[in-house]
Known about the structure:
2 copies of one chain form a homodimer. The first copy, chain A, has helices spanning 17-30, 54-67, 86-97, 112-120, 148-156, 176-193, and strands at residues 4-8, 34-36, 71-75, 102-106, 125-127, 130-132, 161-163. By secondary structure, chain A is of the alpha/beta class. In chain A, the strands form 2 sheets. Chain A has a 5-stranded parallel β-sheet. In chain A, helix 3 packs parallel to helix 5 (148-156). Chain A is globular and about 55 Å long. The two termini of chain A are 13 Å apart.
Amino acid sequence: MIPRVYLAGPDVFLADAVPRAEQAKAICRRYGLIGVSPLDALDEEPAAWSGLSEAARIHLRNEAHIRSCDALIANLTPFRGPSADVGTVFELGFMRALGRPVFGYATTAVPFLARSLAFLGPAATSRDGAWYDGAGMLVEAFGLSDNLMIDGAISASGGVLVTAELPPDRRWSDFSVFEDCVVQVAARLADRAA
Amino acid sequence: MIPRVYLAGPDVFLADAVPRAEQAKAICRRYGLIGVSPLDALDEEPAAWSGLSEAARIHLRNEAHIRSCDALIANLTPFRGPSADVGTVFELGFMRALGRPVFGYATTAVPFLARSLAFLGPAATSRDGAWYDGAGMLVEAFGLSDNLMIDGAISASGGVLVTAELPPDRRWSDFSVFEDCVVQVAARLADRAA
Lengths: 194, 194
C-alpha cells in the first residue's frame, strides 16, 4: 500500500491553492507517497452532511481525510501572528491523538521566542530572565520552533520538523522546505514498514 | 463516576496561573465536575520521561491528562493575534480525535472576520466581496468565532462555544464566561449519562 499523507496548512487560503495542491501532490508522488489535500473531494460525502453549512462540511471532510491518512505534514510557517495557523495545528493535534506520525515544516528558521518578541514589540518586558507580554503572560522560552505542544507532538510521534529561512516574498510560494520534509516522511515511513 | 474535564488555555502563562487553576477547579466542583489543569502533576510520571527536556515532559503530561478526561473546555480568547492560542487548539484537536465532547469559551464576542481585519489593518484588501491579507491569502468569512476547524469540532462533538464581550482589562481575569461554559458542560454530560 502506498502511504497516504495529509497536507495540512494555510496554503488553502492562497489564490492558487488548487494548482499548488497538485504541485505538492506531484512532489509526494516523486517520493512514493500519496499526498491528500484538504481541498480534495471525498470519494462519497455522507448524505447526512447535506443540511450542514459549508464550513461544517469542510471541517468534517478534513477530519475524514486525516483519518484516511498514515501520516500528516503541517505547514507551520507563522500565520497572522508569531505561531502557526490554528486550523493546521488543530489537525496536527487530531492526527497525533490517532497515534500516527506527524511532521512539520516552516519557511522561517527564526525561533519562537524571537518571533514572539518581534510580534510583541515594546509591549514585551523582561523580569528575572523571563519575558512577558503586555497582559503579563509568560512568553515560552524553550528554544523551540513554536508552542511546545507542536514541537513535542512531532518529536514524540517519531516525526521531524524541518525549517529553513527563506526571503519573505518566497515564504508561501517556495516548495523546497516542503520537499525536504517529504523526503523525511518517505524515509521514516519506509523504516516503519521495514 | 464524576466526569473529568480538561481545562485547556493560555491561562497557564499568567503569573498567578496556579491559584487561578484552583479557582477554575472550584467552579467545576460546584457543578459536579472535576477540573483537570495542565499544571497538575500526574499521579505517576513514567520513568522513561526522566531523560526528556522540560518542554517534552510538559507536552506528554498534557496529552496524558487529556486522555484521562471525559471532555475538554478550551479558553479560545484570542492570544497574540486574531486566533486562539495554538497550544490550546492542538489540545482541542487531540480531544476531538478521541471522540469526546469539546467545549470552548472566549471573553470577546467580536467575530473572527472582524478580528482578522482589525489585526491586518491596511494590509487587508477586498475583492469581489472577499477579504485577503498582504500575502494574498483569503480571510475566512463564515461568520464563525475562529478558524472553522475550531467551531466545527465543537459543534460536531456536541459541545458549545460560549462568548461574551468583556472589557480588555478583564479578558484574562474574569471567570464569568468560563463559568457559563462549565454550566453547559455539566448539562451536556448529564444528558449523555442519562
